[in-house]
Amino acid sequence: MEMPLWYKQSGFRFTMSDGRMLYIDPWDIPKGEPKADFIFISHAHPDHFDPAAIANLTHPKTVIIAPEDVAAEIETAIGIKPGVEKNIEGIEFSTVPAYNLNKPFHPKKNNWVGYILNLEGRYWYHAGDTDHIPEMDKIRAHTALLPIGGTYTMDAQEAAEAANTFKPGTAIPMHYGFVVGTSKDAQNFKKLCTVPVALLTPYFSLRH
User: Fold this and answer.
1) Residue 184, SS3 per DSSP
2) What value does the mean pLDDT take over residues 114-122?
3) Mind listing the pLDDT tens digit for each residue in 167-178?
4) Fewer CB within 10 Å of terminal CB in the chain, N or C?
């Protein structure tokens, strides 16, 4: 499966071989993008849960998966907690806790999540907004999308330490370049990682 398209922050679009579209944390998505068959939301902050983007991307059969506090605001959404496994319309996924260890922005009690998605036989871990939490060290994934911006999440060094611990096949930095973090952080992350790193170019910057 090809690399996902990175819009900005933690927003990605995966295109399945059957043409279905899966979005994670779509934020400030340009109008006219393909409609979503699946939308996964990691938590309630506005750069991850963007009702306007969701409204633009959905069609009558779009499946929306989100933590319970977010799902309560979307009539058709399926609410989830950390530590669940599901198969919805052929998309297998599990949820992983996502929280801060020494910051107040993402409390563990909120039950916000990261996702491990089985997409056509490859496991993709989207960490959401998180620090390097103990639960992360048990993850097995072909590709890991990890926040590196610091302030609200892991910084580049902490994210590299996480990647070097659970060793995904490829690590992709995210959550930098728009609110916090810079391209220098991405380069530092790549330098510090002992696993392969792919640096994606935000689709937002390609269009603007």
Assistant:
1) helix
2) 97
3) 999 999 999 998
4) C
Instruction: Establish if 74 belongs to a structural domain.
Output: yes
Structural domain boundaries, residue 23: 5-199
Query: b/e per residue, 62-92, with b = 16+ CB within 10 A?
Result: bbbbbbeebbeebeebeebebeeeeeeeebe
Q: How far is CA 194 from the centre of its chain?
A: 22
Which CATH number goes with the domain that contains 66? 3.60.15.10
pTM: 0.96
Residue-wise pLDDT tens digits, 149-169: 999 999 999 999 999 999 999
Which of 28, 49, 32 has the alpha carbon at shortest distance from 40? 49
State the CB neighbour count (10 A cutoff) for residue 133. 18
